[in-house]
Every structure is written in C-alpha cells, then in structure tokens.
Amino acid sequence: MFGFTRAVSAVALIALLSGCATVAERREAQRRDEAKVLVAKGDYKGAYQAISGDMAGFGPGAKQAAEIINGNPQFKSGLPGIISAEIRGATSPDHLSQIVTRLGYESFTSTLAPDALVALRKEADDAAADGNRDGRLKWLLTDPTEQFPSLKQPDQRQVIYERSIATLRKTPPPGSRPKSQPLVQAVFERAEMAGSGSREFKQLQAELPNLDLSTQDLKTTAAKLFPQYAAKETARREVVVKIAFDDRLIEEDAMPKLRQLSPNLTFVKEGPAAVTLSVKKLQWEERTALPKMETVSYRYTEVNMLAAVLLMPQNASYHYEYSTNGVELSYAFEVKATGKGVPSVDELVRDRAAREWHSCSNTRIQNVYGGLQRADFIANDHMQRLCGSVGSPPSADALRFEAIGKLVAAIGRIPAIAQASGN
C-alpha cells in the first residue's frame, strides 16, 4: 500500500511540474484565441494589441501570432495603419524605441510589405524629431537615439543636451524625467568630447551651481573637467565629526555603518571638528529563552482528506514534535553631540530586540495497533502555519546587528550629520 501511494504521489508531482513548464505557452495561446475573436468582430486594433508583445520574439508563439495576421487579408492590409497610429501616439522615447525595435523581428517583416516597413521607420524617425523639438518626447542623452537618424542632427542633439542638463538641476523643469547616475556621466562626457572652448562646455560650466550633484559625482565625474569647482564644493559639504565610544566592541560594529551614512562625513578621534560626538553604553543584556518542546497530534479526520486517503492507514493518527526557542536583547545608549553653530543633542537610544525560532521534527504516522511509519507530508493547514517556515535558530549576532542599526540611525538624525547626508 505504501509503495502504491508513493507512486501516485510521484505521478502527481510530474504532472504538476509539466503543467508549470507550459504556463507561458498557455497564456500565449489564450492571447491568440482572444485575437481571433477580435478579428472575427473586425476589431483589428484590439487583436494586434493582444498579440503584438508575442510577435516581438523568435519562438513558435511569435510565428503563430503572425499567422493570425497573414491569414486575414483585411487585418494584414490594415496593419500598417494600426502601427502608424501607435507611432503617433507614442508617449515616451522608450515607447517609440520599442515600436521601431519590433519592426525588425521576423514576425513583423513577414506580415508587412518592404515598402510599408520603410514608410513606418521614416514616420517613426520624423515622430522622434518632432517630439524632441516640441518636448512631447523628452529625449535624454542616455536614450537609444541611434535608432533615429533625425536625432543626430546638430540642432536635435543640442536640444537633447540642454534637456539633459536641465534634468540634473536641483529644481528640474516640471514634467522632467527622473535623473540617473548614467545621465550625470553622459552630460559631462558630452562636454568633454566637445572641448573646453565649445558651447556645450560653457553651458555646463554655467549650470554647475544649479546641478544636483552628489559628493561622489563631484569627486569623480565633475573633478575631471572642473577641478576647482569640485574641490571647493566638496570642502563646503564635508563635515568632520570627532567621535568617542566607551565600548570598543560597539565602536568596531558601528563605525563601518556610520561611514556609509554619507561621503560628506569624515569621522576622526582627535583634532578639530565641526561636531563632537560621544556614545556611552548604558545597558546591554542578552537573554536566551529555555527551549520548549511539545508533541502535536492530529486524528485521521483532521488530516487533509487526500493525504489521509492516499498516505495513511484507516483511522491512523499523525504526530510530530514542535520546538520553540528564542533570544532577547535589552540595550540603551546615551548619544551626545555638540558643535560651534549647531544645536546640541542629548538623546537616549533604548529598545528591546527579540528573535523567536521554532522547528518541527519526527513526523510520523501511528496506526490503530501502535505501529509507526515515517510521514513525509504536511498534515493540514494548522501544521503548515506552524512548520511552513521554520527559519534559522536565533543568534545574539542578529540582535546585535539590529541594536547597532538603531544607534547609527539615531546618530544619523543629529541635525549637522543629517544635513551633510542630504536628509
């Protein structure tokens, strides 16, 4: 009986895995079925929207989607107009770029005539230039402009460059796209390539005080072209903090995290400083809870029906050991900070951290005659809640990490330090 039930379980598992492997294919088939229904209704735009994503690929699904178009002359003849409307309605550079990229896939080249492909690429190129000029498509230096010859023209490139600089301002124009680290690099590289006597170089130089550049940007990217400005601005931002701990171990754990607060912060033990900071440990108590263990039992009728029928003798019971354990840390720190021209700080950082752990072991089935056999399945939802995610045994190191994190966060809130960190 036991061998039979294991065979049944193996077959069920294989069926489950094979079903998971075809989920994407089933979804593709559903989209194709939806497209066929829309084609029958004459809704060619809706049909194209249903399968256009699948056509942007190389697998059999892309070919089958293209066959839907090629199998309907009206759909095929109307496809250029549908894509043309999509080009005119593109809402972002990325959107327009995706449309042009799709035109290169075999599923599109097999459904569109060569002259239609040429016309659509020309229309997309014109849309890229028009959208850049009127601001509807906010192209930046980091966008894939190489797909559009029109954007290589000097006047178009200048618009993109100026927009990219404006995006980096502390107060960018309304509707600007989010700035990114690659954009900072792209702007400075463009000015460097143009040369120190160029219009681009002088525009960037004039905008420097208005740009939202991190200290890292100043030290690496900006310093290559404008070393004096970068050095002066970096010095203005940097805050020297003289810090003292009364516990060597706390210091060893906290200092790496403190240095990560901001590149504008420099921590020293001696010498002049804008902020003088002291950290005193007032409490540090670690406690480990006594482990507890109890036996959990389920009657035959309390086990999931399918598992009971297939994997347990009639009227047998299910048993396992449920163990719990835990650790707790109570801690307190006194944080004091003073400095010329900055408000003094005297804060008590006090809290309790705790971790609990549980495990399930010795799962077994006991028949009505007292015989035992191993159980390799979850009995019911109650057991799933108790044993589904047992985690790892608790460790005082995890609590220490949490306590140090709270201490560093409190130090980071000190006004002079928070300002240097940009908070």
Polypeptide structure, described:
- This is Lipoprotein.
- Residues 1-23 form the signal peptide.
- The protein has helices at residues 2-21, 23-41, 44-55, 60-70, 73-88, 93-102, 106-109, 114-134, 154-167, 181-194, 199-207, 215-225, 227-237, 248-259, 305-311, 381-387, 396-412, 415-420; strands at residues 239-245, 265-268, 275-288, 292-298, 317-338, 345-366, 372-374.
- Strands 1, 2, 3, 4, 5, 6 and 7 form a seven-stranded mixed beta sheet that branches.
- It has 423 residues and is α/β, with parallel strands linked by helices.
- It contains 18 helices and seven strands.
- The chain has three domains: 25-146, no CATH class; 153-237, no CATH class; 240-420.
- The chain is flat.
- The model is unreliable at 1-21 (pLDDT under 50).
